[in-house]
């Protein structure tokens, strides 16, 4: 089943959450104005060394994070962009970050697999791991996420960015599979959110010279570039 829509996501609860995100991201700007990435860059004062392809790839990740993890979405996107724009892209060791969640935590591990970026997000309640999400960004516009609970794969989401700026999201569960297309204006709204996070990365990482070193080609997502 294929559907087209700008705000209806998989599941009604998830859809309402993303709809609120879109409204907050777009604000009073029109879709026509948001069509210019330069406006997004200016609005959020994104450091010039953070390439637009980072923003576009990070925006695609937003479509594959399951509802249960939306509370840590900014944390994930922030660290992914920081990973892509790090000072030492040749380092082979994975990067691990921890985010406190009430009586639990989320552990994010980022690594490279050739030109792809791999993220593993483990969610804990107390000392018990309740879910694992493995995300793989192939660096060419396709992001795949597999969610595991109690050792069983419960959901697989594949987001593919198209040349027209839209994103096709396919969700597969035990109940079946469906594909939904999010048009360019909805994707641009998520790019705005990613741009805002990128500006925070720029502020946090800016060195004495006031710029962030460019990452090596192997770490740079090629979509849109």
How would you summarize this macromolecular structure in one to three sentences?
By secondary structure, this protein is of the alpha+beta class. Helices cover 32% and strands 32% of the residues.
What topology emerges from the helices and strands here?
Blueprint: E1 2-4, H1 12-26, H2 31-34, H3 37-44, H4 52-62, H5 73-84, E2 95-101, E3 104-113, E4 116-125, E5 128-137, E6 142-149, E7 152-161, E8 167-173, E9 176-182, H6 184-205
Parallel strand pairs: 1-9
Antiparallel strand pairs: 2-3, 3-4, 4-5, 5-6, 6-7, 7-8, 8-9
Helix pairs in contact: 1-6, 3-6, 4-5, 4-6, 5-6
Q: Which key terms come to mind for this protein?
A:
225 residues; alpha+beta; nine-stranded mixed sheet; disordered N terminus
Structure, described:
The chain has 225 residues and is an alpha+beta fold. It has one domain. The protein is built from six helices and nine strands; from the N terminus they run βαααααββββββββα. It has helices at 12-26, 31-34, 37-44, 52-62, 73-84, 184-205, and strands at residues 2-4, 95-101, 104-113, 116-125, 128-137, 142-149, 152-161, 167-173, 176-182. Helix 1 crosses helix 6 (184-205), helix 4 (52-62) runs antiparallel to helix 5 (73-84) and helix 5 (73-84) packs across helix 6. The longest helix has 22 residues, at 184-205. Mean pLDDT is 75; it is low at 1-37 and 208-220.
